[in-house]
Amino acid sequence: MRLALLLALLVPAPGLAQDGEAQEGEAQEGEAQEGEAQRLLAIVRERGDDTPDKVFESLGKLGDQRALAALERAARHVSTPWSLQRVYEAFRHFEEPLRAEAVVFLAGVAEDGERLHKIGAVRGLVAIGGAAKRNLAEVAAESEVDTCRQIAVGALLSELRVRRRPADLELILAHYRYPISGPRTACVRALRAFDNAACLAVFRAALLDSELASQTRTMIIDALEEMPGEAVDELLVRALEIEAKAKVDVDVDAVRLAAIEALGERGYRGHVLALERLERQGSDAVARAAFVAQSSARADDERWLRRMLRTARSKEPQWRSAAATVLARSSAPRAHETLFELASDEASSVRSSAIAGLAGLRTKSSVGALVERMQAEEGYLRGAARQVLVRLTGVDHGLSPARWRDWWDSEGAGFVLPTRAEALAAHLERERVRGGRTTKSTTFFGVTIEETAVCFVLDVSSSMAERSAGGATRLELVERELARSLERYATGDLFNLILFESSARVWRDRLVPMTEDERVRALRHVARQNPRGETALYDGLVAALEDPRVESLVVLSDGAPTAGSVREPERIVKDVLGRASKRGVRIHCVSIARESALLAQLARGTGGDYHSVE
After folding, report:
1. Exposed/middle/buried for 333, CB within 10 Å: 0-12, 13-18, 19+?
2. Taking CA atoms, which of 255, 361, 388, 537 is between 20 and 30 Å from 327?
């Protein structure tokens, strides 16, 4: 009996043995996890801001109390914005109940931490999402750090637009800033939801606020463009009349140009007097836009026609270009005759506008004139004439002037111009037969590049070190897009790079043929750049235009010109358009993180494309 009892005490029952083994296994696993958490924390202590992102992610994915404590301590050993963002975003991996603890910790840092830690902690709350919405609302309403409020408002945008309250609209207008808050397009879509009378009063006050940032006002205008009602028309007309205030950095031209475009898209005709005032008092760019906008209401007025014909004889190519756009909207034979003459103008920017205008006439005479332009033009203008011919005729003879001439000589007399729908159907059928293949080209941030001698003019000033909503710097985004663009750039075609900050730096003395080695060297050159200095845009443009072989510039910048030999936007536009027109050079422009009326003017004035990216 005693022996049996002793054996029972010494040898556990099978169930007890299993429980003991399980507990021992859990203890060993806990010790292993604690060891892994400490190992990862040691890496952070040793390497600081050089810690690989995967270390922070691994700590978060461990997901237990030890990892949470280690990650909290890890935040003390980093200091750069990027490292802080990564360590705080790693808290998103914790599940309940530790997720609640993570939210409390991040909210505490967002309220009481140092500035960069506050910003990182708010990004961590955004990464967690739903469980942190209440905390983000508190940040948006109360934080003393503008960047924190901007990040929080961006994360709350969907909730704010659903409620459609004036107070929510005021919060968005006060603190949504792209790219910090998110994409510009997301904000415009949200603003369109605030279409009630109370919110319209908020829009009015904001548009007329002389200190409100121009990017916010242009977003308001884009949103109002699709809202119905006479009250919206009146508000957009008021936006034409805003004035610049001293010591306030507001791009009045950008706001006025956006309002002119919005009213035109709405088909509004009651703002002719306001447009006349802008012609007299606005900058050159605004005056020309106001002139063009009046044509919708005055196209067939005899006095207006006489004025258009006088403008077509202006000494300034920018005004002749504007006249070409306006003449295309008139039904008067004299207007059409003058438009045909402008298609042979000495300035390429004028010819570009005239060629585009010929598409609107939709006459056989236009087809004949465009076939003539195919014979006379080279580079991008020949391509532009071909595109208009395809839209008008429904046939496509490529970029060969001889093929277009032979076709027109043989079939022109009996040719019947198809409708727009018929021409489009023919184009779609050709694309189907070709299997979707199109003319070989590349793109850069949405800008299509068809020229074969291109110079990329890229901003590498200090502001290009700022980070986008996705975490990458603006220059890193440019590097990625340039790599993708050059990958498709045809071998043998010519290219070059000019990088500008406080001065312009040329990569090669002249355009060089694209090879695999040159492609790699170009990308390495950009990757080695350290954003610094100010923005000498003019010097970069002039350096690119000095190469006699260049056909096209692809220009990217994120700011207004603040350095270089010329800084005034109007002087830059006038000088650069003059140089480009003499050479027939097309300028494509991309503005990153902000709208740029300057870049838009350079693109429009040379027949190039303009894109704005967040």
Report:
1. exposed
2. 255
